[in-house]
Amino acid sequence: MPNRTLQAELKQTRPFASAEEEAFLNLLRTHGELMGPAAALLKGHGLSHAQYNILRILRGAGGEGLPCLEVAARMVTREPDITRLLDRLEDAGWVRRTRSDADRRVVFARITPAGSKLLASLDEPVAKTVRELLGHLTRAELRTISELLTKARTRSEHPT
Q1: 112 with 94: CB under 8 angstroms?
Q2: In this predicted model, which residue has the larger pLDDT, 117 or 29?
Q3: FRET label pair with 83: which of 57, 96, 104, 123, CA 20 to 30 Å apart?
Q4: pLDDT at residue 1, as a whole number
Q5: What are the backbone angles phi and psi of residue 144, rounded to the nearest 5°?
Q6: CA of 78: how far to CAs of 6, 66, 68, 73, 150, in Å?
Q7: Does position 134 have pLDDT exceeding 60, yes or no?
C-alpha cells in the first residue's frame, strides 16, 4: 500500500502548523471521502444522511416513538433544524407526528410502516457500502480508530 500523506494529497508544500491541525484536516478529508458514496446511496432513495439517521433512531424507538427533542439529542451529527427534517420525512409518509395527550407542548415522532419498509430495503446496501469503504482495515484498526475518535470527541465535549 502506498504511504500517502495528507500533505501530499492536498499538494501542500509547507508542513502543517501543528499536529492538531493535521489531524483535524485529516478528519475532514476522511469524512468527505467516506460520506460521498453513502450520501449518493441515500440520495437515490430521496434521503439525506440526517433523514436516514432520524429514521434509524425512530425504528430503534419502536412503536412508542420519541419526543422530537429526544430525536434531536440522539442524532449522530448535530442538526440545527430537526423540525424541517421531520417535516420532509412526514411529507414523504415515512414519519408521523402526534402531540402528547399529557403535555400538548410535546410532539412525538414515530416511524410509519412505509418508513420501516424503506429502512429495511436500505439495510443491506448501507452495510455493503460501509464494508466497501472500511473493509480493508482490520478489526483492531477499526477498534483503535473508534477509541481515538471517542477520546477526541470527549475532550471537545468537556474542555478544561
Answers
A1: yes
A2: 117
A3: 123
A4: 43
A5: -65, -45
A6: 26, 17, 14, 8, 16
A7: yes
Report pLDDT for 7.
72
Rounded Cα–Cα distance for residues 86 and 155 (Å) = 31
> Could you tell me the residue ranges of all domains in the chain?
41-120
Q: How many residues make up the chain in this entry?
A: 160
- Res 130 pLDDT > 50: yes
| 6-55 residue pLDDT tens | 777 777 878 888 989 889 988 998 998 899 999 999 999 999 999 999 99
Say which DSSP state 96 is in. Answer: E
The end-to-end CA distance of the chain, in Å, is 39
> Which pLDDT score is estimated for 103?
79
No. of H helices and E strands in the chain?
7, 3
As given in the structure block, the three cell numbers for residue 38 are 453513502
Q: Which residue type occupies 107?
A: V
CATH number among 1.10.10.10, 3.40.50.720, 3.40.309.10, 1.10.443.10, domain 41-120: 1.10.10.10
| Alpha-carbon Rg for the chain in angstroms | 19
